[in-house]
Amino acid sequence: MKKKLPIIIASFLFAVVIWISVVLGNFFNYKIEIPLKILVNDNGVAIKSELPSTILLNVNAQGWRLISVLLSKDISFRCILPAKESSFKYQLVNGISENQWLSNDIKVTDISPVFFQIELDKKISKKVKVNPVATIDFRKGYGLARQLRVFPDSVTLTGARALLSHISDVSTKDFFVKGISNQFMEQVGINHSPAVDVDPTQVKIYGDVQKIVDMEIQNIPIELKNSPKDKTILLLPDKISVSVTGGINFLGKITEKDFQVFIDYNDIISDTVGSVSPTVIPPQYVRLMYLDPERIKYIIKKY
Asked: Do the domains 24-121 and 123-210 sit in the same CATH topology, yes or no?
């Protein structure tokens, strides 16, 4: 029996191959959703109407031919549009001849949508800012030490003037990172209308993730701005302490000299309670939590 086992297996596999070849030789009706690719035979105009990104084709073909189509990664339905009119109705059945993969051995029995309304406009290009979009799950105690950065920070859009006139920026496609505790760089695509071309089609998002810590900085001197020459202003006290938070790599390098703390004499003139709040400008990427004291008293001496 053991000697006959290889022969039995080989016979079974041969029978399966024959069965599959017979089945794939039959004709099948199949519905395919494929990308829609529209070309205009005039480089000076572009489509301004919103069109579907995909269409549905009902086809009839032999099984082996259907499999070759379904496995193809570059398949799309091409439509080459005339540019004689600014507005017209286009029947998708007219585009079948533009798609060589729809040869005589594949019969299209139905197309959805049957037609779409085409609106053309002058083609223009403009450069716009890219806004990063990300969902980030940080490890406990970690966070972004500064805002996400995008490289390049702008892309060029090309399309109908009516569409681009309302676009001032674009966003990246959302991406998700989990349990992160160090810096990262991700390449992501751009969200945009199918009627608009984007160059480049992808950008890189950089995130500077650090351990987030708190720190107290003491004895920061208060500067008095717009002080009159005929008066002496005494600030009580003339120094403050601040509590800040931020990335450990940034906080480890700062001192009291990196802070701007000042009081404007005009605020003293308009004060009615005997004390004013100083303005505090922390270093870049450092967030102010609170200051001590929050209000500064003053004495005005005239000459």
From this structure: yes
